[in-house]
Amino acid sequence: MADSDSNRSHASETTTQRQARWRLVMGSGSEQLCGGLSPEQQRQEECLGFLYDREGRGQNVRGKDGNRSGSLDASSLTVPEWINQIHELFPKSTIERLEKDALERYQLDEMVTNPDVLARAQPNQTLLKAVLRTKHLMNQDVLKAAQQLVRKAVEQLMEEMAQQVSSAFEGAVDRRHRSFLRIAKNFDVQTTLRRNLKHYDPEKRRVLVETPYFYSRVRRQVDRWQIIILVDESGSMLDSVIHSAVTAAVFYSMQMMKVHLCIFDTSVVDLTDQIVDPVETLMKVQLGGGTDIGQAAAYASTLVENPQRTIVALITDFYEGGPAGRLYAAARQLVESGVTCLGLAALDGQADPTYDEQIAAQLVKIGWHVAAMTPGELAQWVAEKVRA
């Protein structure tokens, strides 16, 4: 009886999936025939409708009259948002077909054929992600324009993140020593008043401050520490890839630690020599493909100089394409050598992860720390480890 119930449940599930596929093919208006859609399937239908509903209207269809749409102006980011959604919702083969139809049949080609459109676009993270997802379709002239857009967006992000990282590593106030760095929050009010009393003006009843004094700050002894950042470049990790490249550049620019940056899919690419420029890093990322986390962890072990002063930050969704046993062996070797290991299921502004819980749980048993963090939280975590 149990087997019979299970078979009926499986058959019902298969029927439901089949109905949903037909609903996506037929579009809106087929609700009575095919039933409703899940929230994710509704998003898929919106993406398909954005492109294929043009057919009935004759809009943007090659060989037909119609006004072009899909501008990249700041007030309308329809095309970039559509690009990002299809990469989140569909498999690779479907994405390739959608992009082909968008470019060849419906002329939604502003982002990959028109450098003037990119030059006018306002930089933001939605547009940045869309550029990184379509750069393989761009010719050299458009790619140059796209790179300038990426640079502007990355510079904005670096300004936001630099303060978060520097605050996490800033030392405690040292009230025994003076500093020549005039930073408002280090202002020594009592010393400044005491040493400038000779400039008191009785008539105005004010102290004229000719020489302000500031506290110094104790610099953390982190120079001997090393951080190795491993970033999964699969399509679902794009937000984390962007924030990882920028975070690594900020760490490097502040000369707080010796920083390594590597991206990986089924192979590992060491980008440490380009870490100073996150734009160069991002333009080299090839989104999609397989994932071999074990190989990346093994490569990290070859970079370790002093295990007791090394942090490995693995940024991935933990969906392992290679043998899980090899990943666990490499992960265990790092822990047993004395390396501090952190697995991040997300590194972005929201820290909202989707990941393989089973593999993440196994890494925790081995001795890894596993979390989802914003860049500021990562900086705080690293600072706590190196000051311990």
Please tag this protein with its features:
globular, 52% helix, 388 residues, 17 helices, disordered N terminus, alpha/beta, Rossmann fold, two-stranded antiparallel sheet, 3 domains, single chain
What's the short story on this structure?
Helix content is about 50%, strand content about 15%. The protein has about 400 residues and is of the alpha/beta class.
* Total E-strand runs: 10
CATH topology of the largest domain: Rossmann fold
Q: In this structure, how is the largest beta sheet organized?
A: 6 strands, mixed
What letter string, H or E per element, gives the SSE order? Answer: HHHHHHHHHHEHEEEEHEEHHEHEHEH
Distance, first to last CA:
60 Å
Structural class: alpha/beta
- The helix tally amounts to 17
CATH superfamily of the largest domain: von Willebrand factor, type A domain
Overall radius of gyration: 27 Å
Strand order of the largest sheet: 7-6-5-8-9-10
Percent helix: 40-55%
Would you state the CATH class of the largest domain? Alpha Beta
User: So, CATH architecture of the largest domain?
Assistant: 3-Layer(aba) Sandwich
Q: Tell me the β content.
A: 5-15%
Protein name: VWFA domain-containing protein
Pfam family, one: VWA_CoxE
Biased composition (Basic and acidic residues): 1-11
Region (Disordered): 1-20
